[in-house]
Please model this.
Amino acid sequence: MSRRLLVVACGLIYFFLMLPLLVVFPISLSSAPYMQFPPPGFSWQWYERYLDDPQWIEATWRSLYIGVSTAILALALGVPLAFSLVRAKFRGRAVIERLALAPIIVPTIILSVAVYGIFAKLKLIGAWYGLVVAHTVLALPFVVLVMMAGLRDFDRGLEQAAEGLGASRWQTLRRITLPLLRPSLVSAGLLAFISSFDEVVVALFLAGANMTLPKKMFDNILMEIDPTIAAVSVIQILLVSLVLVLIGRFGRGLSGSAR
Amino acid sequence: MQESAELRIEGAAKRFGEVAALDGVSLQVARGELLTILGPSGSGKTTLLKVVAGFEKPDAGWVKIDGVEITALPPARRDIGMVFQNYALFPHLTVERNVAFPLEMRNVAKPEIVRRVAEALALVELAGYEQRLPRQLSGGQQQRVALARAIVFNPRLLLLDEPFGALDRKLRETMQLEVRRLQRRLGLTTIFITHDQEEALVLSDRVAVMNKGTIQQIATTTEIYERPANDFVADFVGESNIFHGTMSAPGEVTLEGGRTLKVRSDKSAGAKVGVLMRPERFDTGGANLFTGDVIESVYLGTSFKLRLACAGGLELLVRQPARGPLPATGARIEVGIDPKAIHVF
Model:
């Protein structure tokens, strides 16, 4: 009886979460010239419009390489940071840990305004790498959290064993530690990518004329609302879902061990 | 092939905060010898092993291999093979790559690596398992891989840190004998760490019994069992009846309860002494007779284990060959022990 209730409750929650998709998917395939639900007929026209519009494609590519660059930079900073936070003992460690996680807590809009002020002085508004820097700040907490979880579970006896068998610190890191942390590295990198790829607030402030995909979508909704936006949404949802599947397959979460 | 080495430790001390994990430990292991360090948890035996392996730096004292001091040398440069308690196999590498690891770190040529890995795996009877991952192996097999990995680079010294703890009894006994055979065959100087006194007796040339950061006694296995140096060793190794008393006359001890025992000892009269009687050394007669009520009797297959309450508050643990009926609780029986069989310390 209680089991059946649980199934019903889960079903309802699932339905609630899926509702937007149930609307967006059909509209993206609509034959009507404006937003209409349910759609009167089937057509690929909105996907065609997206693919034929160089502005959309350019925005998509820009989001992709900004996302990838953000992931790389966030890993380069976050992995060493996580190592020192978990393994080293030094004064102010707790403070640094909280600072690293602060971007999750500070409202993005506040952060955006602050970064805008600095970037305006540095003439970084509109530069794609400026956006990478700002997105890295937002992505860093994810990388640090995932890597810290991975490192806390890591059996340091394995590193000791490697050193006892003749490996230098560097060889131990490269041959033992990093390969064993690969699931965490994969998760951290992909999460950093998604956090940038989906990000709109910072992009609104910093992207200038060089649109990222979320900013282009936002502008599009303001200007001319037509089902192209639904088609773009579907493409973005599929892309992010793919990344999440990759995390499930090759990565690991914040808790629980890999595979 | 590299010669197995001789190890010397002198005055090794290590404190962790208030606790002295090692309190001035000195010992020597001869070339090709298997020395067991036996002690309860917290006795400092693992710290001692870490000092030898280079994972801990002692606060004082030194470690020498073949007369060369290695106290400050990092673990990677000590050429010591080690088998860890939980094996510490690299889970992402196959058996072959695990065993090849120490050779790769020493830049051994590829064909040589292949040959020596095959040799080491054959030695531990794991040929054919090269491509398995550690998690696809049983506990005993993992143990063998760890052993192969520890000896494949001809280490100067082999360290075994309670390697059989996780195995069931039967497998443990097989592995013990296998390690012993391998160690003898390779002539490897070996330090073996355990808290299991039975294991220590089976494996070792000599045993060092540790407690509270100091070595209580270093001696051959028979010496440790028959002639323990103090209460701790007598109590920790094997079953025992330990009493305290005074030498009241040459060859006679008066126990604290007033009972006198005929013993063989050259301790001078008036000396405070400890007396050890092993349960299996009791007989039906002898120069020292005890009459007691059975307060506990257990059938153990080959023997009876009896607890007797004797006159003067004396309680004895006695083992008798399992012949005839098991003495019932409450029965009054008489046992005796020869002066030769009593150890005075």
The mean pLDDT of chain A is 88. The CA atoms of residues 216 and 222 of chain A lie 10 Å apart. Chain A has one domain: 45-250.
